[in-house]
Amino acid sequence: MAIREQVYGYFIPSVTLIGIGAAKEIPARLQSLGGKKPLIVTDKGITGAGITKQITDLCDAAKMEYAVYDETIPNPTDINVAHGVEAYSKNGCDSLITLGGGSSHDCGKGVGLVIANGGKIHDYEGVDQSTKPMPPYIAVNTTAGTASEMTRFCIITDTSRKVKMAIVDWRVTPGIALDDPMLMMGMPPALTAATGMDALTHSIEAYVSTAATPLTDSAAEKSIQLIAQHLRPAVANGSDINAREGMCYAQYLGGMAFNNASLGHVHAMAHQLGGFYDLPHGECNAILLPHVSRFNLIAKVGRYAKIAELLGEDITGLSQRDAAELAIQSIEQLAQDVGIPAGLKELGRRYGKDVEEKDIDIMTANAQKDACGLTNPRGLRDADVKAIYKAAL
């Protein structure tokens, strides 16, 4: 119950298309927004998998001109955005299609911000720093995790500071979000796991957020349930279309939750690991989630108890505290089942990076400045953040 004047916003794309065959509608839908020649922002992996060609074939069939920028990297940078802006202008584009997971969407959002508003992407760090609307924009999702195809979040690495800039701006919300599970069938198990755990982190952080509302709660609860049901099968068998479609809805609902309730210190801390070491965002979240949840537990015991139930645990006869502890154990078991590394050092070794204790001080300082931490349910001192990083090593 509100005890002071408080207005909550709710942000979501004007149109969302989810289901098998949704991708076929891309050209007509872009034209309905006024787009005639899009820049397709994606990455080499998507192009190499043949997914970019599926989209350009649809444009060709509709006699729609386009250009492709597929140089986006897993943690997109200010350099990516600058090159994308150059490609947009050089090719005379008037609209955007982002194709991929969070990296492609974030990069494309950055391109649109700069095209519409001028300056550099750094000018838009923070909340609602733009003044002009994006070009016509469709976000086509190929992973089930980030929900960036429907959010007002744009995360870009500042290469000079080695920091991920959190750009939260209602104007970057795509005009149309599209989730076609057929585009996700080729996702390898490790990526399926990482993006699925990212979605779970979104939903849990939004559920315990200080900005949670009944609208965000309903989305978060259903998202957690669907992830518990569908993530393991999607990792085990990437051709399971029911699991893929279930994860489409799960991650989108997670996006609905965090897009409006925001996040917490899992993301604030994970952003530093991505910016400093260029580690994959979803796996960083998955490793940090149980540790931050244990710290947050006393602030939201009832909520964590409910999370245990949503994850499929039997909490009959348990105290709220014991049920809340079971939620954290359940998160850890899910992460283990889908192959998430046990700690940050192991994650670093997988990607040829040395995650070292000596870097914790600077990462802590940057995490404490991250906008995502503002809605964490329990305040963290620098010493708390450092202790969590050390525990997660």
Describe this protein with a few key phrases.
single chain; 393 residues; alpha/beta; six-stranded parallel sheet; three-stranded mixed sheet; 51% helix; globular
Give an overview of the whole structure.
With 393 residues, this protein is of the alpha/beta class. Helices cover 51% and strands 10% of the residues. It is built from 15 helices and 9 strands. The strands form 2 sheets. Strands 1-9-6-4-2-3 form a 6-stranded parallel sheet, sandwiched between helices. It has a 3-stranded mixed sheet with strand order 5-8-7. α4 packs across α5 (102-117), α9 (265-277) runs antiparallel to α10 (281-296) and α10 packs antiparallel against α12. The longest helix is centred in the middle third of the chain and has 23 residues, at 214-236. It is globular, with a radius of gyration of 20 Å. 54% of the residues are buried.
